[in-house]
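Researcher: Please predict.
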Amino acid sequence: MTAKKKEVTLQVSVINQEQWEEVLVTKGLTVVDVYQHWCGPCRAVLSLLRKIKNELGDDLLHFATAEADSIDALEKYRGKCEPTFLFYGACFEDLVQFMSSGPSHILVLSQLGDSTNVVQAWLDFIGPTNTEEAKREKPASLRAQYGTQTLFNALHGSEDSDRASRELAFFFPNFSTPSGTEQDVEEERVERTLALIRPDVARENREEILAQINKSGFKVSLQRETMLTEEQVRQFYLHHVEEDYFPALLQSMTRGPVLALALTREHAVQHWKDMLGPADVRRAQEEKPECLRAQFAVGDHPVNQLHGSESTEDASREISFFFPVQQTLAMIKPDAMEEHKEKILEEIRDRGFSIRRLEEKRLSRETVEAFYKKHTDQPFFNQLVEFMCSGTCLMMVLEKENAVEEWRAVMGPTDPDQAKTASPNSLRARLASDILHNSVHGSSSPHRSEEEIKLVFGDLSELTEADSLDENTTEGPQDVSSDKHQQQCESKHHQDENRNQSLRAGVNEGPEEASH
């Protein structure tokens, strides 16, 4: 009898829609065993659930059983014979929406001397999670002073050292705690610097230069191949315009696509300058023949073929010029929502994107037709619209340096078959099934991104300063990667099976292919 009683108290029994709705608003995490009347709940996991409950002792962890036959919300689980467990967190979507509504300030805290109690010291300092409890029991705590309710309680702190390690790894993947000896040594400075490979060398020697960059311990954190206008070159080299060599520099920079790289390592600015060598080509050849500017000099051309930032301040300005902070629309399509949503969101976080807006919605036919208006005359248009209206999508506004291109790179080519060859680690290569059901969407350009964000979310007043700068400069740099991708798609078009020909024909019409 005692065992039976424990079973009842361990799992709440839910047998109708009203009870189900009560479970959904239960504070904390609820694990629901969904069953059908003829087979009953899964008894094999009871001992495991009891063990979890006893070990954690968490009042916010709940277990329930739910009979699918009598609950309308669980209709899709009827007729299945495998065990099904659902996880529900009350207010979780509100928390996600709140945490992605603006920037957070993330700190790694330590204490002078002995830091073994830093986790508990910070928890004591910020006070209880519930702001009302904080005001009542610890009125001097930070949450009591600045929090308004449990969700908006102003601050977060790791619950224990294990959780602290996981959270540090999430926000700062390269973070490591220095040993006692290392703490006595000046910490090496991890920096970023801008590298430019000018057109003449970018065409012929880019792979060789990239190999030397990697061998020297640099990480290429951002990469962009772009065409510059004369006006942009003048803006970038504003302090060199009056120099005698500027006409030759201007000609060199506008002769073809420039490869721009943001390089990262300790003391990156100085290390890259050392690799480049003297700015004067003849001097570089005479004094430091092993340097990059000497190795990759072009005939008698007076302008060196590689650029590096002079200081950390210049690096910050120059990286912002080529890789402005942008916003782009991202969408998880209906075919990926059930199986791959969490995996895609994890990838987004791991790649350093900030989610500024997030909303799960079923798009209306009018919205989809407006979204894909460029494809109205294509034979696959109706099929595309029907698919996009067939289920819910997760709509997001992502923000990051060079966000439009970065998200396109994460997605991979529109056609999953091509993605498997050209970008095997991309989302479409790993998750998509065909060119129609290709899992994700991303804006094809900064201008298109603004249009799509406005269409889905309305006017957003939160345009960053960098967005404004990008607007002024992105009539160029004009990316050349989309042209290459289009050529690859057109080549691939003639090799693919007949069932996808009409889709590919429309996709390869022009740069708007990325919108599909």
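Model: The mean pLDDT is 80.
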